[in-house]
Amino acid sequence: MLQASSSSLNYDNDEDETETRAYVSLKTTDDEEQISQEEDEERITILPISRFRMTLPQVLATTAQSLLLLALGMMISAPTIVIAALLNTKTESFSMNGSEASWFVGILMICQPLGSILSGFIQEWIGRKKCMLLVNIPQLIGWWLINSSKNVEMLYIASTLMGFSVGFMEAPTLSYVGEISQPHLRGTLASFTSTYISLGYFLMYLLGSLTKWRTAVAIASSVPIITFLAILMIPESPIWLINKKKMKEAEKSLCWLRGWVSHEYIMKELADMIVYCETSKIQRSPIPINEYSPVDSNEVSVSSKIVTFFKDITRTEMMKPLRLVVIYFFFYHCASLSGFRPYMVGVFSNFNLPVGAHIMTVIGAVLQITGGFGCMILVSRTGKRLLSLISMACCTAACIFLGIYSYQLQHPYIIQPWIPFTLFCCLFFFTNLGISPISWSLLSEVFPSRGRGIGGGLSAAVYYIEYFSVSKTFLDLKSLLNLYGVFFFYGSLGFIGILFLYFCLPETEGKKLEDVEKIFAKRRTDVESR
What is the pTM of this model? Predict the structure, then answer.
C-alpha cells in the first residue's frame, strides 16, 4: 500500500516525462525501420533555406518586442523634460520643488522592482507574449495622467503605474530574445533591442526640445497602442511552449521563427530544445515514506511545489549568474552616472556647454544610439567580455576627467566648454557601446530555461532598486560632496568595476544556451566530483 501511494504521488511527473520522450522520439527518429528511406527522401525534397530568410523573422519578432523598450526609454526620460519644465516654475499651472522632483523620479524607479518580480512569476504562467501585451495598459494610463495632470499627486500616480510597467516588461522581453534567436544572432539581436531604449531617449528629448511637455507626452501615448498591435503578430517563445508541454504550438512557433518553413526543417533544432529544457530542470526526488502520516494530497502538492521553487532559485546555476548580473548592474550605474540622468538639464547648465542644455540631451541620445549600433557590429567580433572592459574603462575615465574639470572650475584656470562637452559625449557613447546593452543581454542567456523568467525578474528588480538609489541620492550627494566630488566618487567605483569584470565575467558570446549554463554549473560539478 505504501509503495502504491508513493508511485501515485509521482504519476503526473512520470507521465509528462514519458510524453516528452515520446514526442522527441517520434519527431526525430520515427520508426527505426524507415530511417534510411526517410533520410534519402529528405536529401531530395528538403532544399536549403537562405540565411536571409532564416534571419528575417527573428529580426521582425525582435523589432516588435523592442517597441516595448522604445516605450521604456521614453518613460525613463520623460521625468527629465517634466522636471525641467516644472521645477520651481511660475509659468505653469503648478510647480514642484527639489524634493518633489526627486520623488517623482524615485517613485518611477522604486515601483519597477515590484513589476520585475511579478513578471518573473507571471511570465512562467501565462507566457512571454501575453505579458508583453498586458504591460501596455498601465503605460497608456500613465501617459494620460501626466498629460492631464493638475498637481504633483497626479504625477506620482502616473509615475507609479509607469514604473510598474517598466519593471514588468524587462524579464519577458529579454527572455523572449534569448529564446527565439539562434546562438550566432543572439548577441547582435540583444544589442539591437538595447538600441531601442536609446531611441526612446532620443525621441522624448527631441519632443521636449521642439514642443511643450504636455504635447510631447500626448505624442508618446501612441507608442503603447502601436506596440500592442505589433506584438499580436509574433509567435510565443518555443522554449516556454516546450516547458509547458505544448509541443505542437512550439513546432509552429519555431517554423515561423526560422523562415516560415515546414516542420521538416526545424525538427533537429526542436529536438535539441526539448532535450535542453529537460536537462535544465532540477531532479525531483521522490517523497520519502518512512512512516505513515495522514497528509492531504493537496497539501503535499503545494508543499512540494514550494520546495521545488526554492530549489530552483537557490541552486548554483541560478545564484552564480544572479550574483554576476546584479554586481555588473551596480558598477554600470556608477560608471555611466545613471543618477544624474533625470537632472541632466541642470547639470549641463552648470558647465555652460557650447550648445543648449536641451539640445545636449538630444545629442546624448544620438550618441547612445550610435554606441548601440557599434555594439551590434563589434560584439560578435570582440565578444562581450572585452567590449565590457573597454566600455567600463572609458566611462570611468570620463567620470574622473569630469571631476578634474569640475574641481578646477572652483578656481578657474581653464574655461573651455568643449572639454566637458567632449567628456559627456564620450560617456554617452561608451555607455551604450558595451556596459548598457551587454549587462541586459546577459539576462537572456546566463539563466537556465527553468527559472530564466524568475532570474530575469529578480535581476531587473535589483537594477531598478540600484537606479532608485543613485537617482534619489544624486542631489544629496551633490550638496554633500559638490559636483566634482560626485564625479570622483562614481569614477572610483567604476575603477573597481573594471577589476570585477576582468576577474568575474565569462565569455558567453556565440555559445549555445546549454553551453552557457554549463559555465555556471561548473562549480557545483567540481564540488560533487571531490
Answer: 0.70
